[in-house]
Amino acid sequence: MYAKAGVPVGKPTEFVEGLAEPANDGKPPAVPLGMPIRLLRHSKLDFAAWDACINSAPQVVPYAASWWLRATAGQWDALVETDEHTGRYRAVWPLPVKRRPGGREVYQPPFTQQLGIIGAGNDIRVWLEEYAACRAYSRFYTQLSTDNGLPPARPPMAVHLRQTYHLSLAGPYETIRAGYCADYRRRLRLSETDTQPPVLSAVSDAEPLLALFRQTQGPAAGLKKRHYARLRRLVAALQARQLLELHEVRATPGGPLLAGALFVRYRSRLIYLFAAASVEGKKAAAPLLLVDAAIRRHAGTPGLVLDFEGGMIPSIARFFANFGAVPVPYAALSFTQQRPWYLQWMR
């Protein structure tokens, strides 16, 4: 689920070394850093080769698809490992960038939980030790994928330990439900015997859900108008590819919206991307009904995993764990270059 992007959460561990010195102007070099891995600016990327790499990679990371990054980031550079004979991208490391007075920054876009190295060359340690061009940027923050593992830690880059929660949907629904906590099972039984239970339905319009989030959680999450615009672009891109499942719970047909959720179905992942609930919805256990319904729809699918896309906040982690989901660690990397004296007042 969505958490404010670009803000390291959790205590930094140690550090990672082996990074190239920054260019004098603070911009990424346009020349190859070494063959066959190169740092490419956005304008030099081959997007057909990019998406072919993402779609066939052993790692399942929809956030790295060009259409996803186009919606949430707009611009990104990348470290790319290329097959010298065919030009095929063997592996990529997306580096979303934005300009700031202190130079170009690598950041984690909103609604983009993980990036990191995707493709055949997945050893993050090799990429950092031999081809780490991230020192070409004034600031650097990126979240790796769960498949990249936890890199060794040395200066000048901090490694932040993060976690998401996964639940296998390969088994039958009854077996998965038996793994819910006792309170969740009790609430579901009450809902199933209620003469007027809340109404759960699939819809295509995400605007009521976005409005509910703005009313209930938006200010605390730090979302601004531009973030909602990015989410709308992402919803449109997902719907165009038939990858989005949008469900909502109302007290009665056409009644007040109690809760809603966006799920993304991509290859072997079902991602709990975005959700909101009113105070009344929480009392009616509407978030529980939404997640349980998604599990019921997809249970029995070989290899399918529900990624709850979060778990850094203890109360949210408990909500996920109560479905029987287990924590899965991944790393975030960050550093900040020393700013010029005339920019050091900025925070």
Note down, in words, how this protein is organized.
It comes from Hymenobacter metallilatus. The chain has 11 helices and 14 strands. The protein is α+β, with helices and mostly antiparallel strands and 347 residues long. It has 2 domains: 12-162 and 330-343, Aminopeptidase (3-Layer(aba) Sandwich), CATH 3.40.630; 170-303, 3-Layer(aba) Sandwich (Aminopeptidase). Strands 1, 2, 3, 4, 5, 6, 7, 8, 9, 10, 11, 12, 13 and 14 form a 14-stranded mixed beta sheet that branches. A hairpin with a 2-residue loop joins strand 4 (89-100) and strand 5. Helix 2 packs antiparallel against helix 8 (225-240). The longest helix is centred in the C-terminal third of the chain and has 16 residues, at 225-240. The two termini are 27 Å apart.
CATH class placement of the largest domain: Alpha Beta
Secondary-structure class: alpha+beta
- Share of β-strand residues: 25-35%
**Helix and strand succession?**
EEHHEEEEHEEHHEHHHEEEHHEHE
Query: Care to count the β-strands?
Result: 14
The residue-averaged pLDDT reads 86
The third-level CATH topology of the largest domain is Aminopeptidase
List keywords for this structure.
11 helices; Aminopeptidase; alpha+beta; 2 domains; disordered N terminus; 14-stranded mixed β-sheet; 347 residues
